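#random but structural
TW: two for the price of one
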Amino acid sequence: MSFTPELLKQSIKPFIHAPCLWVAYSGGCDSHVLLHSLVTLRSEIIPEIKAIHINHGLSPFANEWEEHCRKTCEALNVHYVAIKVNAKAKGSSPEEAARHARYAEWKKLLNKNEVLLLAHHQDDQAETVLIQLMRGSGVKGLAAMPMKQSFSRGLLCRPMLGFLREEIVSYAVEHSLNWIDDPSNFDTDYDRNFLRHDVVPLLETRWPALKKTLSRTASHQADANQLLTELAFQDWHHIHENNRIKISELVKLSEKRQRNVLRYWIADICELILPDTVHLQRILDEVLTAAEDANPEVIWRGGEVRRYQGMLYAQEKLKEGTHLLNLKWENLESPIQINTNGLKISAKTLIGKGLSQEKLKNREISIRTRQGGETCRPLGRGQTHQLKKLFQEWRIPPWERAVVPLIFVGDELAQVLGYCCSETFAAVENEPGWLIE
C-alpha cells in the first residue's frame, strides 16, 4: 500500500469538524509529509491547518531547523508557531526532558476541540512495542501509541500509524520534498536507534512482516487494556472518596484487581507517572498493611502514595522547603502569587463575609505557613483551639498541614485559608469584609 493524501483523508475524517488541525512539525521527513498532504487536502477539509515547531536546543543546528520549518510553512501558506524549550531538566535524560517539554507546550497550545496530529508511523509503533518489551512493561505499555487520545482541551491523533516509513519516504521523494535529517537519529547509543538500525532489520530477515505483526500486537494489547480500564473504573467507583481510596474497601478485592485499580487511580485519576512493579508491590505490602497510627509512604520518581486515617493519598512528590512561607500582603486589592506551589490568593469585598475591613485597616497582613504553637478562635466556636488540634479535627493529613496558607494580622492568626476565619477578625452583619480565597 502506498501513502497518499486520499488515504490520509480517511484517517482524519473523524476530525473534519474540529476548529483547527495542528501538525507537530519537526522538519523531518515524516512530519513534512503529513503537513504537505494536509495542505494538498486543504480544499476538501474544513479545519484550519497550523504547524507547531518545538526547538529543543539540543543540536547546534536547532535554530537552522527552526528557520527551515518557518520557510517551509511560509511556502505552503500554513500558520507557523515556533517555541524554544529547555530540554536539560535535572535528573532526566535529554530525550526524556525534551519529550516532557514539548508535550507541556502542546498542552498549553491546544484550544478547546482542536486536534494535534503527530506523524508517528507503523515502524515507530513496532519499535515502541519492542522497547516496552525490553522494559518488562504490562498491557498498557505494550499497547504502545494509540491512534487517538484525549489531550489537554482537545485530541492528540496519529493518522499515519497504518503506513510504513518506506511508504512515507517514497511520497516525499516523489514530491521532491526537502526535509531535515537529524544526525542523532543514526546514533545507536540510543535504544530506539539501536532497534531501528540493528535489531529490526535482522529480525525482518526471518519475519518479513515483523512491523505489521508488532503493530497488530499493540492493537490486541490496547483492547485488553481497555477491558482492564473498564474493570478498574467499576472497582474505583466502590472504593474511592474524594479521589482517595478507602483501604477497607480496597482490601476486599483480589491482589490482581488491587494492582489494576491502583494503576488506574495513579495514572488516570491523579495523572501521575506510574510506579514500577517493585514500588507498586510496596504499596500493597507496606502501606495497606501498616498499623492504623502509622503514616507510611512509598515514593518513586513520578509521585508518592501515603496513608492517613484509613485512606490512601496519591500526589506529586512533596518538595523540601515548600512549606517555608512568610509573605507580606501590602495591598489586599491585588492578588498575591505563592511561587513555591503556584497558588494565587486573592481578596474581594463582600458584606458580612470574611475578615473585617475595619479591623484590618492599617494593620500588617502576612501569609505564612505553620511553624508550630499557633492558636485560633474559629467563628462560631466561642473558644480558642490549638491549630494542631483543628487540623486533626479537619482530618488534614500531616504532610499537608505544613503548606496550608495562614492569614496573619500582625502576629495574630486571622484565617486558616480554606477552613475557618478567626472570630476576633470576622466581619459582622452589614459590615464590609475581605473574602480571601
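TW: number two ↓
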Amino acid sequence: MKIFSGIQPSGELHIGNYLAVITQWLDLQEKNDCIFCVVDWHAITVPYNSSILQQKIKEVAAIYLASGIDPEKSTIFTQSAVKEHVELAWLLNTITPVGDLQRMTQFKEKSAKHAKNICAGLLNYPVLMAADILLYQTEVVPVGQDQKQHVELAREIARRFNARFGETFILPKVQIMKIGAKIMSLTEPTKKMSKSDPDQSRISLFDTPEQIKKKIASSTTDSGHEIKYNPEEKPGISNLLTIYSLLMEKTIKDAEKDFANASYQTFKQRLSELLVEKLTPFREKKTELAQSPERIEKILKAGAEKAGIQAQATMAKVRQAMGL
C-alpha cells in the first residue's frame, strides 16, 4: 500500500506525537511504500520564528531517524522541496467549497487562539493537506485523532475531482490507533497534549531524565488511590496509564494489573523510569546527528528527488484532466 503522513516542524515534538503517529509508521514501513514528510508549509499558517525554522525541520527529521524510520525503506523529505504540493493545492482550491473549510474544527480552534492572525493559509490548510495526500496516490494516512477530519475532507475532495474530471485520484483512508490516538495534557488531562501549550504540560522527546521525572511527579491525577482506566471519572490517571501501556506494548487491563496494589507515587516513579529508558535514544541520536548535519541534508535531498518524480507524474495526469 501507499502510505503518506507528516509532522509540522513547530514547537517541541512530544510523547503524544510519537505514540499516536510515529509508532504507526514503524510498523507500516516494513511492508508498504511509505512517504513521511516534514510539513513546513503547514507550520507557517500561524505565527512562527523564521530564524529557527530550518533548525526545527532538521529536528523533526532527526526524530524520524531516531525513532527507527529507515530512509532505505521509506521516503523522507521536506514538503517545501517538492513544489507540486502547492500547485495541486491551488487547483484543489477551485473545487473546494469555503463552507467545508470553515467547518473544520482545527480552523475554529486556531482562529480563536490566533485571533489577530486569521490568514487565508489557516483556512486553506486542509486543502494543502489534501494535496499532500493525493499527490502520491495515497491509500492509507496514519494520523492522530485531531487530523481525522482533514483526511476525510481529502477523501471528499478526491471524490469530487474524480466525478468532475474523470478518475484521477485514489480515495485515501484514515488510520488511527484505537488506544493512544489522543494523548492528553499532563496538567489538564481533559485537553489534548499540544506542542504550543506550556512545557510542563507535555513530555518532549528531547527532555532530560530530570525534566521527565519532575513533569510526571507533578502531573495531575485524581482523587482516590486506585490505578484504574476511566477517562470520564479519572482522566489524569487514565492518561498516564495509556502512556505506560503503549510504551510497554501492553493492554490497558494488563497495565492495571501491574499496579493493582500500588500507590500513585509508585506508578508515577515507574512511568518516569520507563519514559527515561525509551526517550534516551532520541537525545543521543539528536546529539549524534547534530555533529553531522550533512547526513540529514543528504537524506532529505534524496527523499525530495524520489518524491518529486511521483509528484510530477500525478500532476501530469491532473493537468491533462483539467484541460491545462
